[in-house]
Design a protein that fits this description.
334 residues, alpha+beta, six-stranded mixed sheet, 14% strand, globular
Amino acid sequence: MSSETATQDRARTDELEQYRKELTGYCYRMLGSAFEAEDAVQETMVRAWRSLDRFEGRSSIRSWLYRIATNVCLTMLSGSGKRARPMDLTASSRTSEAVLGPPLAESAWVEPMPDSRTMPQDPAERAEARESVRLAFVAALQHLAPKQRAVLILREVLSWRASEVAELLGTTVASVNSALQRARATLAATGVTESDPTAPLSDEHKTLLSRYLAAFESYDMEALTSLLAEDATLSMPPYVLWMRGASDIRDWMLGEGKDCRGSRLIATWANGSPAFGQYRPAPGGGHEPWALQIIEFSDGRITGINSFLDTARLFPLFGLPDRLPESQPAEEGL
């Protein structure tokens, strides 16, 4: 390969790669899985690279890439089941009656996504994007038919014009508008809608998270439950079991969850929300991965603790260490 050809190849790669992050966010909203989203974007890049010489420029490179990514996602969604959160599948359980049960396959769940893989650098754009990758919103999108999902994301989240979406999908503006109306109605029925852009963490929120970290690491359940909203939830994918209410969460933590005593937490960000890598004490010393916790809050109280237990897959995705020595500092990145 000549140096000129190598230079041209690098330029072509760079031209495509500048869109990887936003395409990852789009594919994640479509698919509900960080791993499937990254596979979809990689397939998009491969197809685009192979076809770049034939790109005729009737649309922008960005629009062309979104067309390819949409087709990849629609193919992946063909025949696949709907991903969900535990609260979408069963009623909450009282601790006294709770049975953990068998885990479900990873394909059953809406999976967490690191902010670092999807969030734009611009603070205003970042605030806009956070709301549309919330776990509840991504789970609500799963109720939409795949093409309706694409229409709603492109129109409502990414602010594309109806004519642009129609061109991308090879349909009419009237068809796009009709699909959007049906998608909005379905989304409204789930009780979850995209809300206003999220402001950066306030000092109050930072204090709340610091108090949560301190309470969890000291395993002071009275202090921890004092931070919870009355109807706060605790879920633990890949298990269907979940519970609602501060008292039931406390009882679970002191009962079946008692082995979490002595845990350490490492701060990160997922789905536009503060998150923690949780490490439980290891038999040979130090701490080993146990859960990725995504913390939801409102009105100065924690409303949700979403503990994803598939750490073998998730911790490398989030760049979290595979073990903590005893001297590892616990609080980072808040």
